[in-house]
Amino acid sequence: MEALKALGHEISPIEGGFYGEKRQGGVVYQVFYSEEGNVRLRRLRFLREEAKPLNLAGVAGEWAARYQVEENFFAVADPQDLPSLVLAFKRLDQGEETP
Predict the structure, then answer these.
(1) Tell me, what's the pLDDT at 93?
(2) Residue 98 lies in a domain
(3) Per its UniProt entry, which superkingdom is the organism in (predicted)?
(4) Which of 89, 92, 77, 11 is nearest to 38 (CA)?
(5) Is residue 69 part of a domain?
(6) DSSP characters for 15-49?
(7) At 15, is the secondary structure helix, strand, or coil?
């Protein structure tokens, strides 16, 4: 957990493990880790947003849409492997090789 904090992730305990998140520009990097060693790395890339006034059934309101891409990686790993997994996942985003 401390290694993820050093990489800039905000860490929160969740039932059965912890959750880490780092926002960088229009991208959100998330880490979910369970006590059993289950890892989920998720990247959300926000492509665009749009909004406009809209009337539905005679009720004035606001319509909004957010277009995004979600990418996930699932594995079972030891906690000490998390920093290298997170960095390798981020390198995928930059088009670099992941050893």
Answers:
(1) 74
(2) no
(3) Bacteria
(4) 77
(5) yes
(6) TTEEEEEEEETTEEEEEEEETT-EEEEEEEEEEEE
(7) coil
d(CA 93, CA 31): 15
The size of the chain, in residues, is 99
pLDDT > 80? residue 98: no
d(CA 33, CA 21): 12
- Confidence at residue 7, expressed as pLDDT on a 0 to 100 scale: 92
What is the mean predicted confidence (pLDDT) over 2-21? 94
DSSP codes, 48-98: EEEEEEEEETTEEEEEEEEEEEEEEEEEE--GGGHHHHHHHHHHHHTT---
22 within domain boundaries: yes
Token pair for 84: 């290298």
Domain containing residue 12: 2-93
**What digits encode the pLDDT tens for the residues 37-60?**
999 999 999 999 999 999 999 999
Nearest to 70 by CA among 50, 99, 40, 98: 40
Query: What's the whole-number mean pLDDT along residues 52-74?
Result: 96
